[in-house]
Design a protein that fits this description.
Chain B is mainly α. Helix content of chain B is about 80%, strand content about 0%. The chains are: A mainly alpha, B mainly alpha, C alpha/beta. Chains in contact: A-B, A-C, B-C.
Chain lengths: ~270, ~260, ~350
């Protein structure tokens, strides 16, 4: 008896959410346009159905641009993960490295692309390479910091237990630290995945040649109705990226999956 | 006590020492030479200091504006994010969708967000705060949700065996358990928030603030040192805030594994 | 069981998306690989190998830069044995930045902006002044009753800043107004929303661009608005010009002349055929409407070749106007000390390019 009901609600929940978001969007657009008679209504928040119509009319352009942006996002994200992961391991291995690196990671995050871009261009002298470097630069920080806090949260007694068995450092990491930090790693990735998409859109704006970012800039600057469809594409890509990480988590962290299910049953 | 003092000394002293060496190398032109950068592309610390002094008290007023925007946005964004996490925990089946919605908003780049918020708010400050708040929500929601739900297995069973009501479970178990994650989120958001405040100021109606000056100066060949001076100020502000949050975290989380 | 199947299908879909993203990345990076290392431009004229050069535009592909796109489309660069890549601009860097750091060989920028780079000791020169007058205007609604710079006192005046604000400062200075006290300066974002929304009284607008956006590219709608023209007010500073590294130009003299010759030919054709030029630009960057490109092309043509100019005057370095830019720039704080005109421009390439053409 329980099975079919749960299956239904599984489909029902996202449906209701989608309907709810669509409803609220349309309602706010309606209020702006018809009740408040705001002359800027279409700029503040156009009707979702209008946005979708333009999106469908320009589906080719949008999907093509989306693909370009997403592919760059994946590259930036993967490089960001690698760097974030290595940094987190290094920092958790040595308190000294952590103490030295943390403030500088912070400072690095505070240098805007406006200051950074000319330097990176000077170093690599190539537009496409610069774009990947900058996308990576934006993506790695949330992964590194979440991973590190995952490592740190591993209870000391558990670590001590392994050390009393005279386990070597690599063994401790392999058997205890990595598995324990995986949930945090995924939290970091969930935050970083849409950021990688954003980074990729920002990087589109460096060359304004192709991608969703270029469409956004073109339509912001030159008018036209493609701005909101481009924003919508960005949002959909963000959802897709988070969903992909969640899926990966579901596949890679089975023990979390079970505990979540147990929780779900008891609620 | 002395061990603690020593620990504190290294955590301040070490990065500081590295910083001093770095700044010295930078001033001596080693960084520029290594990267093949002109002093316009990467001005020397002395140029940056001179530019900073030339700006005088204007720096303080610009910094205050940006700081107010990013802190106000941070509080609002973290607040909404945490509420969504609580909602998602209380009603996991229905509430978790809010996390997806919030993180989807994160895929709107700040440049676009800033332009949209400019349309929504006639006050420049309002639109800046809105941008920062939107950027901060998802990070807090996702982190806090994990904290509220990753409980030690025995802890819940213990409360259950006491037949504790749900409110007690929330107050005594879930919320304290979420605190480390909340601090992680706040630390990430400090940086993101300051950064988004800067970027929204590139497009803001105001002609004040750190971001406005950074944008204006970086576009002019003879004012790049001033632009860098403002970047340094923004970075220093973030570090000070970060240290404050870390100190608070240490105090609040003494009981937690990561601080034992 | 069924629950698992649905989630599996969902997850497979998501995975396919990610994978397709991965797969296409290799292809797209391969196809865009052509745009690399501008610094590698070589002078191998005559050997059959084309000289590769990169031109950095100040902003998005639009009729503002139509001369180069036309020259490229019509094969004028190819005739000069040049293979050109025209890179759109970005709000994250300037054309000068890209020339200095070696990502581009030539930059299309504003002369007033170039001056700031020259003041800080960069080895850049103006080799051809493409726009012969200032295209910046202040647009106001007729109801605001602002007829000249004099009426700006107490008004909200918009500009983009980042070096674009000095003509406005000069205009205010001309009437003895203090830019911080007598008016309130407001930053404009990419759009003209703030002006349309009545949030600012006078908005900065380029004749060829924002002006068209306000009047829907329809000159008859101009009757609702008034303009303050920087040229009429006598505070014009020179805008779009071509710059490159002085040292690089000296060692690639022939290439610079050939590039300039082809570019000027492109500008001549574009000014004579603005509609066709607009179409060519529109084919490159489709996001701005064709109608707006056509409006822009006409207005740009009037600025590149104002009445009284002939084809062979296009791109000439008018010392009087350029000196005025330096003087106003020095007076109103664009640059701290005057740049010497003779260090700032080099007319020899333009002279050489136009001599050969006749």
């Amino acid at each position: 008896m329980k099975g079919p009901i749960r299956k239904k609600s599984r489909l029902l929940v996202p449906m209701v959410w989608i309907a709810g978001v669509v409803g609220v969007w349309e309602l706010v657009a309606f209020l702006l346009a018809e009740v408040l008679k705001d002359p800027q209504a279409a700029n503040k928040l156009p009707y979702l159905h209008d946005v979708i119509v333009v999106f469908v009319q320009n589906a080719d352009t949008m999907l093509q641009a989306g693909e370009i942006t997403l592919s760059r996002a994946v590259v930036g994200f993967l490089l960001g993960i690698s760097i974030g992961f290595i940094l987190a391991v290094l920092m958790s291995l040595s308190k000294i490295i952590e103490k030295i690196a943390m403030p500088y990671l912070l400072i690095m995050q505070m240098i805007p692309i406006l200051g950074l871009a000319p330097i990176i261009f000077s170093l690599v002298k190539d537009l496409d390479t610069s774009r990947i470097v900058i996308a990576t630069y934006i993506s790695f920080y949330p992964i590194a910091i979440n991973m590190l806090s995952g490592f740190q949260a591993v209870a000391k007694d558990r670590k001590d237990l392994l050390y009393t068995y005279a386990a070597k450092q690599p063994v401790v990491y392999l058997k205890l630290m990595f598995p324990s930090a995986l949930p945090s790693f995924f939290t970091g990735m969930k935050i970083a995945a849409p950021m990688a998409v954003t980074a990729s859109i920002l990087v589109d704006m460096l060359s304004n040649k192709d991608g969703i970012g270029a469409i956004m800039i073109y339509s912001l600057y030159g008018g036209g109705d493609k701005f909101w469809p481009a924003v919508l594409t960005g949002i959909i890509m963000g959802i897709l990226s988070t969903a992909a990480v969640s899926l990966l988590e579901w596949l890679c962290v089975p023990w979390e999956r079970h505990s979540r299910q147990r929780e779900g049953d008891s609620v | 006590m002395s061990a603690k003092a020593k620990n504190r000394a290294t955590s301040i002293g070490l990065p500081l020492a590295v910083g001093v060496v770095l700044v010295l190398l930078w001033q001596m032109g080693v960084l520029n030479a290594a990267g093949g950068l002109t002093t316009m592309q990467l001005p020397l610390p002395s140029d940056i200091s001179v530019a900073l002094v030339e700006k005088g008290t204007r720096v303080i007023s610009d910094a205050t504006i940006t700081l107010v925007a990013s802190l106000a946005g941070l509080f609002i964004g973290c607040g909404i994010g945490y509420l969504c996490a609580v909602l998602a925990t209380m009603a996991p089946r229905w509430g978790r969708g809010s996390l997806t919605v919030l993180s989807a908003l994160n895929a709107v780049p700040i440049v676009a967000l800033a332009c949209i918020m400019n349309r929504w708010f006639s006050s420049a400050m309002g639109s800046k705060i809105a941008v920062v708040a939107i950027v901060c929500m998802a990070t807090m929601a996702i982190n806090a949700y994990r904290g509220l739900n990753d409980l030690q297995p025995f802890a819940r069973d213990l409360l259950k065996s006491y037949a504790a009501p749900r409110n007690t479970e929330f107050l005594k178990l879930r919320i304290p358990n979420s605190l480390p994650n909340v601090f992680t989120a706040v630390k990430i958001n400090l940086v993101n928030g300051m950064m988004s405040a800067l970027i929204s100021e590139y497009f803001s109606k105001d002609t004040v603030g750190l971001g406005f000056t950074i944008k204006t100066c970086m576009k002019m060949g003879n004012q790049k040192a001033t632009g860098w001076a403002y970047i340094v100020v923004a970075a220093l502000l973030s570090i000070v805030l970060y240290i404050v949050v870390t100190l608070v975290e240490k105090r609040v989380l003494r009981w937690h594994a990561s601080h034992r | 069981m069924k629950k698992k199947v649905t989630s599996l299908i969902g997850s497979l879909l998501a995975l396919t998306c990610v994978l397709s993203g991965c797969g296409s990345s290799a292809a797209s990076s391969a196809s865009s690989g052509g745009m690399s290392s501008a610094a590698a431009a070589s002078t191998s004229a005559g050997s059959g190998k084309m000289d590769k050069i990169v031109l950095q535009d100040k902003w998005l592909p639009q009729a503002q830069f139509m001369g180069y796109y036309v020259a490229d489309k019509k094969g004028y660069y190819k005739d000069e044995n040049i293979e050109i890549t025209i890179t759109p601009g970005s709000s994250d860097f300037t054309a000068e930045d890209q020339v200095i750091n070696g990502t581009a060989n030539f930059g299309h920028t504003w002369y007033s902006s170039l001056l700031t780079y020259q003041e800080s000791g960069n080895d850049l020169i103006n080799i051809s002044q493409i726009y012969q007058k200032s295209a910046l205007e202040l647009i106001t609604k007729k109801s605001a009753n602002i007829n000249s710079g004099k009426d700006l006192k107490g008004k909200k005046v918009g500009n983009w800043f980042g070096g674009n604000e000095y003509e406005i400062y000069a205009l205010l200075g001309k009437y003895g107004y203090n830019k911080d006290k007598d008016v309130s300066l407001v930053q404009q974002d990419f759009t003209m929303n703030a002006f349309n929304n009545n949030e600012i009284d006078a908005a900065s607008a380029m004749t060829y661009n924002e002006l068209g956006l306000v009047i829907d590219d329809d000159d008859s709608k101009m009757s609702n608005y008034k303009l303050i023209d920087m040229n009429d007010e006598g505070v014009a500073m020179m805008e779009d010009c071509l710059c490159c590294s002085k040292a690089w130009a000296a060692s690639h003299k022939d290439l610079v002349v050939r590039f300039l010759r082809a570019s000027l030919k492109g500008w001549q054709y574009a000014c004579a055929h603005p509609d066709e030029a607009a179409q060519i630009v529109w084919d490159v960057g489709k996001s701005v409407s064709l109608k707006h490109q056509q409006f822009m092309a006409k207005k740009v043509a009037e600025t590149v070749k104002p009445s009284g100019y002939s084809d062979k005057d296009i791109g000439k370095l008018d010392e009087k106007k350029l000196q005025q830019t330096i003087d106003l720039g020095t007076k109103y704080g664009l640059i701290k000390k005057a740049v010497k005109l003779s260090d700032s421009i080099d007319a020899s390439y333009w002279t050489e390019a136009t001599k050969a053409a006749s």
